[in-house]
Amino acid sequence: MKAISVHIINKTYLAILLVGLLFKTSLAYGSEPPIVFVAEQLPPYHYVNQNGQTTGAFVEVIHALLQQAELKGNVKIQPFARSFKAAVDQPNTFLISLLNTPSRQDAFQWVGKIYQSYAVLVGLKNSDINHLSTLEDAKSYTVGTIRGYHSASFLIDHGFAEQENLSLSVTSKHMWGMLFNQRIDFVMTNYIALDRDIARAGYNANDIKPYIFLYKFPNELNIATGLLTSSALVEKLSQALTTIKQNGEYQKIMEKYDL
Asked: What pLDDT is stored for residue 31 in this prediction?
């Protein structure tokens, strides 16, 4: 009778151990945060269409990237500031298109380049300003950009100041309104999706022209994540990005969107 009792106790003890082990295992897997790619509304690169679907050239690149890496993930469209903070504060959160700047270099892990753009000062065609050679020349005028963007710190680092010759807007719609209503003289912006951005703000892109191309401004848009994401995941996605570029899948997506 005693032997039977010990046998039952041992079986019960083993069952408890097994349940505990399974519970710990489930917690370990459950604690791994999902992979999320975030970006602002910027057609045709990443945006929510009229049907409420997240789409765009870079979104398709992300889907191809995940498939190549045999991983699952989601894409979210949200304001840039929120996306930036999420990538820094939350593991496995990736910015789809982040400029690689000196101040950001060590604060992020870089999966790889997704596109290349260039910065420009644009102004109204009917402006009285006939010629502009350098960024230094633009200090005699007022230049606008988006608060929090690298372009804002770039202008400040080059001697521009708010309340003097620098206007910082919270949204691109407000920024373009300032230009088209002649409250500022120029806008510093990336040249990608410029026509669409202006049209979305309710203005005609044919009414503006480029005055200066800023070749010293960082121009590589990268997939990036904060330091909390595992380096192994970053490396796996980086290899997948290289592969879809080598096998032509990336190029097909770019050609589909006339990029």
From this structure: 62
